[in-house]
Design brief:
- It is a single chain.
- Helix 3 packs parallel to helix 6.
- The protein has 23 helices and 16 strands.
- By secondary structure, the chain is an alpha/beta fold.
- The structure holds 4-O-methyl-beta-D-glucopyranuronic acid.
- The site of 4-O-methyl-beta-D-glucopyranuronic acid has 12 residues, from loops.
């Protein structure tokens, strides 16, 4: 073959592969591939014979379009809907008020149970026919029900005996974007921001619609569009117009928009000389700002605020409390039923106390002082979205305050969008954690969903991992983290196993030869990343600023709490952060039961050992290993786990398209390289203190400590821009 011909073939292959890839992953879990198994599609074809779908509102029409689109793709033929309800309907999609009385009466108890957003999906016999009924009290319930029905079909479930009643357990199910107005994304690893501010409001990128569809399909009903390190400009009329357009798109999918509000906005864009929350002019400014926003966006959600944290302005600049700041904004949005989400992620450079203690110390005294339409948003753990943290002590410690939880879906500390890590496993671990604030009913999930103490507002927020990448999230498996977050926000008691299985089947294939091994691989992936990054309770030993890769040696930053050395405290005597009574006593912020469990070496879970205790290198663990050996073995185990992920991935090659297979295969290669980097760099560094040999079974480092220390990444993605 001539060189020219080879070149031609290669470029042809590249074009094909680029075209293939252009679509690959964009559809997320909503691909709806045509059902191949005829025994399954026969049942569905019967159901699709004579379908009535109620129309007439934006959300109902969206539901109808989704159903049509889904049926056509899954069944591979055009779909019509009947215009009137009759006795011969095979599928009825209709609100309760529009159902025939004999039908709606039959389900009274269910309708009472499902509230505003739930739905019922039931197969019944009516006039001798089988009819599938999808009904709800409100439009949005119908839309959620349609997505559920399509999901059931996509995953090949039998519908002939379906009897499903479902409603969300949490009210506010929200994505927090950390997107800047210049389209960079703080901690974003999937390209740039999908919000094209320059072309808005006139140009509506079809992506906005697909984004809303994806969110609605998993029950997400609120979004904040911009970074919590906020730019006040977003509150100006020019941006309000742009946001109004987005809000109009999202409304048909049941999604409300929130603004991130910069506390100093009255000064920066309002021309006032103070942002003091007790100043009447400041209050007036926010009142009229709220009025202006609601004039454009009548269902506007409210404000999300990061205040007096990491340099952001806040009420403390004027010697006022978080409650005083939050309540001022709460009053402004109250006439319109708006909500203020106030973040509890605070720590100060002036406070030399353990950073893990600061949120609790600042917020618990304010319990009961926040107005009814304020909800305090607390990160899952007391430090900062680490691969593993114990639960945040604030959960259940503010019984008279609405409290919501914040997870990070974007993988700032979990390998960016290069590492395959299934986060619902982490979310589940936190949600299932007991606070022991009561004898029963006080897990984190129960605090968050209002079981612990009934709340005016219940909510769960996730920091989005979405960007302009073709597949939205960078790593195709990072889509599962977006999906899983939505599912857990709807029902915080769902198991990560169920979520993994659902997602795999909807995204890739129902073939058990693919689903089973890959589901296991996903479920183990979270423990792998803990092992190769932060085993045994180590935390925040990431390289500075960008948090890409290990940096346990970093010690020269101005704020102590920014230095990894602050967190691991390694010296010749040992390693770990003493948070017991002999140290920072952070354990005292937990309930008495947890304080005892964490404080006692006999009962402290091995996973949190170095989070709560400083221990000698020779400390003997229950399995007989010394601390040093166990740490080294854990790092090695993490690397081995990634090796075995690669083996698993190779084994499923026959079930995927080439591009689908190759994409993940390449990413896993990087993950393995980086897992080894973490192991080698951390062990070499800690070895300078432990002065011990690596135990048998741990691979020799591939390079010197100096080499690892010399690595610099000035262009690592997601770094906070300089003006923040
Ligand atoms: O995790 C840290 C991040 C910051 C972020 C901050 C926060 C938005 O490193 O980039 O700022 O948390 O949650 O406010």
């Amino acid at each position: 073959m001539t060189n020219k011909r080879v070149l031609f073939l290669v470029s042809l292959w590249c074009i094909n592969c680029a075209l293939g890839q252009a679509k690959e992953g964009y559809d997320l879990w909503l691909g709806y591939s045509k059902i191949q198994d005829s025994s399954i599609s026969e049942e569905y074809l019967e159901i699709a014979q004579y379908v009535y779908v109620q129309e007439g509102t934006a959300v109902l029409d969206t539901a109808g379009e989704e159903l049509k689109n889904g049926f056509e793709k899954l069944l591979g033929r055009p779909q019509d809907f009947a215009t009137i309800l009759t006795n011969s309907n095979t599928l009825i999609v209709s609100k309760r008020e529009n159902l025939a009385l004999n039908l709606s009466d039959r389900f009274t108890a269910d309708f009472d149970e499902i509230g505003r957003e739930g739905y019922i999906l039931k197969s019944i016999q009516s006039n001798g026919n089988s009819v599938l009924i999808l009904s709800a009290n409100e439009d949005i319930g119908i839309l959620y029900g349609v997505f559920r029905l399509l999901h059931l079909m996509q995953t090949g479930q039998k519908l002939s005996s379906i009897n499903l009643v479902d409603a969300p357990k949490i009210d506010l199910r929200m994505l927090n974007h950390w997107d800047n107005l210049d389209r960079t994304v703080e901690r974003g690893y999937a390209g740039f921001s999908i919000w094209n501010w320059q072309k808005l409001p006139e140009y509506i990128d079809p992506r906005y619609i697909d984004y809303a569809r994806a969110n609605a399909s998993i029950g997400i009903n609120a979004v904040s569009l911009t970074n919590v390190n906020a730019n006040a400009l977003v509150l100006t009329p020019m941006y309000l117009k742009k946001v109004t357009t987005l809000a109009n798109v999202f409304r048909s999918y049941g999604i409300k928009v929130f603004f991130t509000a910069r506390f100093s906005a009255p000064v920066e864009i309002g021309g006032l000389d103070t942002a003091d929350p007790l100043d009447v002019n400041v209050q007036e400014w926010w009142n009229s700002k709220a009025k202006e926003i609601y004039g454009e966006i009548p269902d506007f959600g409210g404000f999300l605020v990061k205040a007096n944290s990491e340099g952001q302005p806040g009420p403390q600049n004027y010697d006022r409390t978080h409650a005083e700041g939050a309540n001022m904004l709460a009053k402004a949005v109250k006439p319109f039923n708006g909500t203020v989400i106030w973040r509890a992620f605070v720590y100060s450079e002036h406070d030399s106390d353990d950073r893990a203690k600061q949120a609790y110390a600042e917020f618990v005294p304010l319990d009961g002082k926040f107005l009814e339409n304020v909800v305090v948003q607390t990160k899952n753990g007391p430090i900062d979205f680490q691969p593993r943290e114990p639960l945040h002590p604030l959960f259940g410690a503010m019984p008279n305050t609405s409290q919501m939880i914040e997870f990070q879906i974007t993988q700032e500390y979990l390998g960016f969008s290069t590492h395959l890590v299934f986060l619902p496993k982490l979310f589940e671990e936190v949600l299932d954690s007991e606070t022991y604030r009561k004898e029963k009913g006080s897990t984190v999930a129960e605090v968050v969903d209002g079981t612990f103490k009934s709340k005016r507002i219940t909510g769960m927020a996730g920091v989005a991992n979405i960007g302009t990448d073709l597949n939205w999230t960078g790593h195709p498996f990072a889509q599962a983290n977006w999906y899983g977050f939505g599912k857990l926000a709807w029902n915080p008691y769902l198991s990560s196993e169920t979520i993994a299985e659902e997602w795999l089947r909807a995204t890739y294939t129902n073939n058990p030869k693919f689903v089973e091994p890959i589901r296991e691989m996903m479920l183990n992936s979270r423990e792998a990343v803990v092992n190769y990054m932060n085993p045994l309770g180590l935390h925040h030993i990431f390289d500075t600023g960008h948090h890409y890769g290990p940096g346990p040696w970093v010690s020269e930053l101005s704020r102590p709490a920014w230095n990894p050395t602050y967190y691991h405290n390694a010296d010749v005597n040992g390693i770990g952060f003493d948070r017991t009574a002999s140290g920072s006593n952070a354990i005292a912020q937990y309930s008495r039961t947890l304080e005892k469990i964490f404080g006692n070496l006999e009962t402290c879970p091995k996973e949190y050992l170095l989070w709560f205790h400083h221990l000698p290198w020779d400390y003997k663990l229950k399995n007989g290993e010394t601390l040093w050996n166990e740490m080294a073995l854990k790092y090695q185990e993490g690397v081995d786990q990634v090796e075995s992920m690669i083996t698993t991935w190779k084994s499923i090659k026959p079930y995927l398209k080439r591009t689908q297979y190759e994409e993940v295969a390449m990413l896993l290669t990087i993950q393995l390289k980086e897992a080894k980097w973490w192991r080698d760099a951390c062990l070499l560094y800690f070895q300078t203190f432990s002065k011990k040999e690596l135990p048998l079974g741990v691979d020799k480092p591939s390079n010197s400590l100096d080499y690892f220390k010399s690595l610099k990444f000035p262009f690592a993605p997601g770094t906070r821009p300089r003006w923040n």
